[in-house]
From TrEMBL, chains A, B:
Keywords: Oxidoreductase. Pfam families: Aldedh. It comes from the Bacteria. This is Fatty aldehyde dehydrogenase. It comes from Desulfuromonas versatilis.
Length: 529, 529
């Protein structure tokens, strides 16, 4: 399968611009063939118009066909076989095992949404029947369900070339909702993006889905992203990446004549609190697990634990020694690209210049070939966090800061001072967790997910997942970008008043032919009305 | 009951500023006693800090207590008796019957949310149990539910002094969600606001709810509103009013260091389409009902039908004649205040200057005492709408524009050109509605509520209501500000991973003690886990 480097605009391979860019092999920091065309506003406009043009057909499509389409995307991705795995590994320096696991997760995610579409209750159907005799005024027949917003712009993420990229959770949930998708491919893995984009196109063609429901525009610069977010026919934006990038898109979308929602997941420091009893009982084990979590995938997870709070004392000293001993032998690993490597090195250098911030393992800031970096563990005291905002910002890469707290109050104060987080973790014995309910209650306001006695890396795709959190973890803390509830981002309610049965959407007719759960005169049921 | 003119800050009556303002009696355009203090940033800051301080107690409160509190607000409003009705009538010039009906609706709205809180399924509990043996990786125990956002700023609306004001749908749904509320009272009815504010305070005190969960800050200028939206502890904003006002709040909130959601309902033109068969069969009746809908409450409803589309021809001529005959004898009625009267007169004058826009009843632009205005019916052709954006903007007051369409294509084109609407209405015979499915499908993208053979004024408060719609009807087309789904605006999901039973919120424990509907390993059930 030869990569074309072209934009996938509906069913056409095309390019409006002439500039090109290449992916980088992060192992050796050298460019990879072929050249990819840099997308332009013209490419975006064509893609979005096609999306709008085929939106009506997508939203009117029955659940079997739409579900089948989403399911077939998974089949077509698997059918790419090793070509996809090899290209993804070459572009990201992630190991084969990781890419294969991520591919599995991506396909499972697609299957979850395919099942959800087929099951059908996601439309949240509600029926309040007429009461013509009600006094003082008769009650009309009212029925409501969720409908898709319209074309959605999806920004592929660099750190998950499959699961948060072209056919990732954003695309899967938007298509499930009935929204056409225009993806801006992440410039770190354009070959992977093209392969997956062609798989989606193939699935559409096989399932009789109009080609305009999916396009992929590639680009390294800002033009494609800006054109997408500004385009009047785009109705929502999904993004996973940096705070700077997510906020820029949010600001752009909010300044439109017609503002649109931006669901940007922008990472966080994912604080971990280790309570004294847990430190005493199993500090060494937690230290070992922490180092594994911090260095997993060269630390390039949104849920990487970047701040570890524990109470000052001999328990903490032992914990730090054990963590240092586990981390010291870890060799350098390749980051996804040169820009991330530079950012990591610069951020570490800045952290090391802060008084009272000390490395607990030897520092290797330069000297690695390609995009390789060494992991690092730092230590500081809680009171410094308040004075140095940099300590509370996400550090993307295999590093973490252990924060010593003088006492319980200082630990709670540090939790209170946290900004919004994707996750927050507490390690404690059963007894002390009960004693620290205040901490748990406090973290509920800070994070989208709270974990006990585990590590935040590893995000399960299921109904109960909340991968989100208050700003700056996301631009919309009311949303999740992982799990079945992610579909809600792309829906809006419509109420139908006094509609005759045949004019109603099938989900709202008296006869519940799809057997979905509905709220009927206030009662949840699968019965007919 | 004597009005104090003071701010109600938690349990205290206070004022930080010294400036005052008075309400206007719109019947006579004269000021009403007493003077009310103009709120300041200091008042707002005190109120928001109290709200934040009592948030934890409100969100931890059991459903019986929180539901009882919301229910008792309705009791306390009723206990105000005629004092409330008289003051509301004096400040708004709305008739006693209308105010009494609105009070009934306001109380029913509170009772709906009280029932919802007590029933409990609104938290959308989801449980995915652990699968320790799953391969390749064990699945952790994950449970998710919706939790409240934090303090909410509510802006009282001028046109519904009870139902969309201090204890209106925004306040009721925010309190139901567990969010403390700081209301900016609408300056048109400060006395009504103070009375209702005291009723809420009384209910809180009777139900053991901490006083900080509710404050009322009054003001005529921009200072209170700006201070509220900018306050870092405020987590969401609800507003009903003009496009200009709503957009200003949205822009302010989006520009905060931590952006927050703004749910602004900003009205719309609520287009009505009359298909040829309906025009032929019952044109005269539709004309009479239309005039009643347009002039109801001096046309001061967000759902007032401002644009009426029908096909050119003798049927339309007869329709216009009948509507004109019904409207001509309607005398002038008082608008809510002098600013609205001026706006209405100026907008009508501007419309009358547009070539091809003609009045079909005599025009009385000036000459009425107090804030009285005369209703007006205008006529134009569909092609002019595209050239004159003013024709497509909401005209707040008892006026409507009949738009003649040359043919079916022009009618569909006019529908396609519409901006977002709260409602869209179609009158048609059964046969022609089936023939115009394209129109219904098109309107689904434009409006939050679609009505057949009725009129949009009158918004039912129930589970199936969607009172919202794409921009510029609202700043968030994914939300509704009326009905039980309005609670969702103030919620965010939190996922609990590997929590021991006693540490989980009651709604997520294995034993379903509250008997709520939950999603248990993908299955909707009220059973224990």
């Amino acid at each position: 399968m030869k990569l074309s480097g072209l934009q996938l605009i509906g069913s056409q391979d095309d390019h409006a611009g002439e500039q090109t860019f290449r992916a980088t092999d992060p192992q050796n920091d050298i460019p990879l063939e072929p050249a990819f065309f840099e997308g332009t506003g013209t490419d975006v406009d064509r893609a979005v118009r096609l999306a709008e043009g085929d939106f009506d057909r997508l939203r009117a499509m029955g659940p079997q066909q739409r579900g089948g389409f989403i399911e077939d995307i998974a089949n077509q991705i698997m059918a790419l076989g090793d070509v996809l795995v090899r290209r993804a590994c070459a572009e990201t320096a992630l190991p084969v095992g990781r890419i294969e696991a991520e591919r599995g997760r991506t396909c499972n995610q697609l299957l979850l949404f395919a099942r959800m579409v087929r099951e059908g209750s996601w439309v949240d159907a509600r029926i309040d029947r007429a009461q013509p005799g009600r006094s003082p005024a008769p009650k009309p027949d009212l029925r409501m369900m969720q409908v898709p917003l319209g074309p959605v712009a999806v920004f592929g993420a660099g750190n998950f070339p499959l699961a948060f990229s072209v056919a990732g959770g954003d695309t899967a949930s938007a298509l499930a909702a009935g929204c056409p998708v225009v993806v801006k491919g992440h410039p770190g893995h354009p070959g992977t993006s093209e392969l997956v984009g062609r798989a989606i196109r193939r699935a559409a063609s096989r399932c009789g889905v109009p080609a305009g429901v999916f396009s992929l525009v590639q680009g390294r610069g800002y033009e494609v992203g800006e054109a997408l977010v500004r385009h009047p026919l785009v109705k929502a934006v999904a993004f996973t990446g940096s705070l700077k990038g997510g906020r820029a898109l949010f600001d752009l979308a909010a300044s439109r004549p017609e503002p649109i929602p931006v669901f940007a997941e922008m990472g966080s420091t994912n604080p971990v609190f280790i309570l004294p009893g847990a430190l005493r009982e199993r500090g060494a084990q937690i230290a070992r697990d922490l180092v594994e979590s911090v260095t997993l995938g060269v630390g390039q997870f949104c849920t990487n634990p970047g701040l570890v709070f524990a109470m000052q004392g001999p328990g903490l000293d032992g914990f730090v020694q054990e963590a240092a001993a586990c981390m010291a032998p870890k060799g350098p690993g390749p980051m996804l690209g040169p820009a991330l490597k530079d950012n990591y090195q610069q951020r570490l250098a800045a952290l090391l210049r802060i008084p009272g911030v000390e490395p607990v393992v030897p520092v290797h800031l330069q000297s690695h070939p390609g995009c390789r970096v060494s992991p690092l563990l730092l230590k500081t005291e809680a009171h410094r966090l308040l004075a140095e905002p940099l300590l509370g910002e996400e550090l993307f890469g295999p590093a973490s800061i252990i924060v010593a707290c003088a006492d319980r109050d200082e630990l709670l104060g540090a939790a209170r001072a946290l900004v919004g987080q994707l996750t927050a973790t507490v390690h404690g014995t059963d007894g002390e967790l009960a004693d620290y309910r205040e901490l748990l209650f406090l973290l509920e306001r800070k994070a989208g997910r709270i974990l006990l006695n585990g590590f935040p890396t590893g995000v399960e795709v299921c109904d109960s997942m909340a991968h989100g959190g208050p700003y700056p973890a996301t631009t919309d803390g009311r949303s999740t970008s992982v799990g079945s509830a992610a579909i809600r981002r792309f829906l809006r309610p419509v109420c139908y008043q006094n509609f005759a049965q045949p004019l109603l959407p099938e989900e709202l007719r008296d006869r519940n032919s799809r057997g979905i759960w509905r709220l009927l005169d206030g009662v949840r049921t699968r019965e007919d009305a």
